[in-house]
Amino acid sequence: MTIAMNSPVPPAGSTSPAPTGAVAARGVFKSYGSGETAVHALRDVSLDFERERFTAIMGPSGSGKSTLMHCLAGLDSIDAGRLWIGGTEITGLPDAALTRLRRERVGFVFQAFNLVPTLTAEQNITLPVALAGGSVDQEWLKQVSSTLGLTDRLAHRPHELSGGQQQRVAVARALLTRPDVIFGDEPTGNLDTATGAEVLSLLRRSSREMGQSIIMVTHDPIAASYADRVVLMKDGSLVGELEQSTPEAILGALAKLGA
C-alpha cells in the first residue's frame, strides 16, 4: 500500500502554475460545528486526480470520503485550502460562476438515478444542455448512446426502463457535456450485483475508451476494484492508495483501517 503524501499549498494569489489534472486539492480543511462538538471532516487533504483515470475513494464510515467528494465538486465549501477543477480554481468562486462551471464542466452520477419521470431517456440525457440554453452535439449523443447500449431506448420513459438502463441514462447525461470530471456517489448502491457490474464496466470503458475522468465514492471493494486507483481515507485524512487492485487486496487494506 502506497502512503499518500500531501503537496505544499500555494499561497492565495500565487503565480505558481495551476495543477494540470482533472481535479486537485491542496491543504483542504473542513469542519462541522464548533468548540468541543466540532467534527473535523477533512484534515489537510492534498491530492491530484489525473485526467482520463477512474479513481475510487474509500474508507470507514465517517472517514470524510463523501465530504471530500462534495468539496471537490464545489457542492460544499471548505474552511481552508485550495481546490481546482480542470485547471480552474474554484476556491472562493462566486455562486453564479460555480454553478455555471458545475453545469458545463462537471458530471454527476448518484445512487438515485435522478431522472425526470415525464421525460424520455433522450430528453433526460440532454436536459443539462437544454437548461443551459445550449445545443446538443448530435453525433456525440449518438456515440454515447451507442456505447452505453441505449440507442433503442431513447424514446422510453424511466418507468419503461430497468434499473440498469436508468443508470445508463444517468451516465450518458453525465458524459454528454464532455465534462472535466464525473463524480459518482455510490452509483451502484441501488442496483443488483449483475447490473452493478454492468454499470461499473461502463464507467471503466468511459474512462479508457472515451477519455473521461471519474471520481467515485464507494464502500464496496468489488466496485472499487473496477477503478485504476483507490484512495484510502481515515478520520478525515489520506492514509494510502492502491493501484489496479483486486477486491481482496482492497478489503485487506480497509481491514487495516478498521473499516
UniProtKB/TrEMBL annotation:
One of its GO terms (cellular component) is plasma membrane. Residues 1-20 are annotated as: Disordered. The keyword Nucleotide-binding applies. It comes from the Bacteria. Residues 23-258 form the ABC transporter domain. Pfam families: ABC_tran (PF00005). The keyword Heme does not apply. GO terms for molecular function: ATP binding; ATP hydrolysis activity; transmembrane transporter activity. InterPro entries: AAA+_ATPase (IPR003593), ABC_transporter-like_ATP-bd (IPR003439), ABC_transporter-like_CS (IPR017871), ABC_transpr_LolD-like (IPR015854), MacB-like_ATP-bd (IPR017911), P-loop_NTPase (IPR027417). Keywords: ATP-binding, Nucleotide-binding, Transport. Gene3D superfamilies: P-loop containing nucleotide triphosphate hydrolases. PANTHER family: ABC TRANSPORTER RELATED, IMPORT ATP-BINDING PROTEIN. This is ABC transporter ATP-binding protein.
